[in-house]
Amino acid sequence: MNSKVTSEGSKLDGLKWVVVVALVAAGVVGNSVYSEESLLYRVIALLVIAGVAGFVALQTAKGAAFFTLFKEAKAEIRKVVWPTRQETTQTTLIVTVVVLVVGLLLWGLDSLLSWGVSGVIG
């Protein structure tokens, strides 16, 4: 029974994606046609069309999978242990010092090689 529901969902998913593409195309064309209208009205209309297109896209199997992935990612972000202000400051200072030291070393090496090549070339 699940395979029948999945195959019907797959058939309707194609139609739903066509509707999403049609809505996006209508938004682009409508924005061009009504270019003389106020920017505020056009932005509001585009936001409404984008909302409807997003809602239709979420009704598809791939849209539902994306929404599930988004919710799981949000839950994982809550589990992250963020560094303290002191750790962040120390790490930033270490990275800055290392970048400066490596930059000076590369500058010195470049100057040495440039001096050597100019001495050989004459």
From TrEMBL:
Record-level Gene Ontology MF annotations: protein transmembrane transporter activity
Origin superkingdom: Bacteria
GO cellular component, one term: plasma membrane
Subcellular location: Membrane
Keywords (A to Z) from UniProt: Cell membrane, Membrane, Protein transport, Translocation, Transmembrane, Transmembrane helix, Transport
GO BP annotations, alphabetical order: intracellular protein transmembrane transport; protein secretion; protein targeting; protein transport by the Sec complex
Transmembrane segments: 14-34, 40-70, 91-109
InterPro entries cross-referenced by the UniProt entry: SecE_bac, SecE_sf, Translocase_SecE/Sec61-g
Similarity field: Belongs to the SecE/SEC61-gamma family.
Subunit structure: Component of the Sec protein translocase complex. Heterotrimer consisting of SecY, SecE and SecG subunits. The heterotrimers can form oligomers, although 1 heterotrimer is thought to be able to translocate proteins. Interacts with the ribosome. Interacts with SecDF, and other proteins may be involved. Interacts with SecA.
Function in brief: Essential subunit of the Sec protein translocation channel SecYEG. Clamps together the 2 halves of SecY. May contact the channel plug during translocation.
UniProt-recorded name of the protein: Protein translocase subunit SecE
Organism: Amphritea japonica ATCC BAA-1530
